[in-house]
Amino acid sequence: MPGIPSLFHEPETLKLAMVWAVMTILGALLSGGWASRASAEPWSVQTSLSVSSTLDTNVDQSSSADRRSDVITTLSPNLSVVRRGQRIILTMNGRTNYDLYVVDRHLNNAAYGGGVALTINGLGGRLSNATLDLSDNYVFTKQLINVPIPGDQLGNDGLLTRRTNTSRNIFAATLTRPLTPQLSAVIGYGNTVTKYQAAQLTDAVDHRANARLNYAATALTTLNAAYALRVQEQGDQAFLSHQLLTGVNTAFTPMLTASLNGGVSYFTASNQTFLILTGNVTKQFEYAQVWLNHSRQVSYGGGLFKTPAYGQSVRIGASRTMGPNGETTASVTAGYRDTRATQGGTTKARTIDMSATIRQTISQWLSAGIDVRHINQHSSGGAHIRNETITLTLTGAWSSPIP
């Protein structure tokens, strides 16, 4: 398809393919060697195909005065292969979105992504009770909000950007080891690499190394303390920060849970300190739940941000299951986010978003849904973006073992 680069023309893609190949071969060899045939589950394949139609009131993500509407049909095939051994779990997946526009057909585009995850339970020797988790996920898209990345619900740090070829790769490695029945230690490293074709947008690389202790104070309460070293590269600049965090997760009752995690992030070059905070409260009912989230985080920036960004957000939501077997689920969410550049940057944005969703299970392999969403954003320079979408989706999913 025009405008989509060949997978094997970019050095980053070749490196990514090598990482996936090594993890896949390692997982296959270890799962075959460490798991007896009697106890190991076979390879299994899971496939799905979604067809959706979206009425989008602002396909260009332009200012409110210049916005244009269109109807977009999206085809989304997905494939996942899983190998479960006695100690090893290997998962590989691939996904693609094809967007077909009714009015502006030159906007037709494809987004694709894939990933591999490897879990090893028990490494032998002093780490016989430890668990190693490795994962790598890649996404290429022309429109940031079409293929959401965890943690980036509205695209780049909550800031809607114009259409451009964008690639993002997320790698993570964690080692978890119980020290006592109540105390466990976790060390990890991860990085996120984001690249944009548009010269006006800033590439970003985020490196994260961390160590954390988890303590089960009671059956319902867990305490944690962590340190993280972070290096954020924005174009030709690099920003180093230290983070100290502590938190508590507790269940007041089986139906009421809460968590509060907080600390500080200190940037060495600018001598700036930012408050980090994440709080969640969830109340469960027999067929419903409501939740509230507040967050203050330093993100890796990039895109329209030429420095790391500091964001504050508040979100509230509710969901309910209906029907004799819970085959219908309805949910609503609303949120506010204020994102500002740090380290002398001037980019900022305030965003309000609301959504309502209904999901219906039709059969064991078929489901349908309707999503309605509204976004209202004011950003640097007086820009004002409004966007409403209504999406109808039909999804078929199949799963079977590989002989």
The whole-angstrom Rg is: 22 Å
Largest sheet: 18 strands, antiparallel, barrel
Instruction: State the end-to-end distance.
Output: 35 Å
What value does the average pLDDT take?
82
Roughly what percent helix?
A: under 10%
Instruction: Kindly report the oligomeric state of this protein.
Output: single chain
Q: How would the global form be characterised?
A: globular
Please tally the helical runs, counting DSSP H or I stretches of 4 or more residues: 1
- Helix vs. strand class: mainly beta
Q: Name the poorly predicted regions.
A: 1-11, 33-40, 144-157
Residue share in β-strands: over 45%
Please render the helix and strand layout as text.
Elements lengths: L10 H24 L9 E13 L13 E15 L3 E14 L7 E13 L9 E11 L24 E13 L4 E14 L7 E13 L4 E14 L2 E17 L2 E12 L4 E13 L3 E12 L9 E14 L5 E14 L6 E14 L4 E14 L3 E19 L2
Antiparallel strand pairs: 1-2, 1-18, 2-3, 3-4, 4-5, 5-6, 6-7, 7-8, 8-9, 9-10, 10-11, 11-12, 12-13, 13-14, 14-15, 15-16, 16-17, 17-18
List key phrases describing it.
403 residues; mainly beta; 6% helix; globular
Short note summarizing the structure:
The chain is mainly β. 6% of the residues lie in helices and 62% in strands. It is globular.
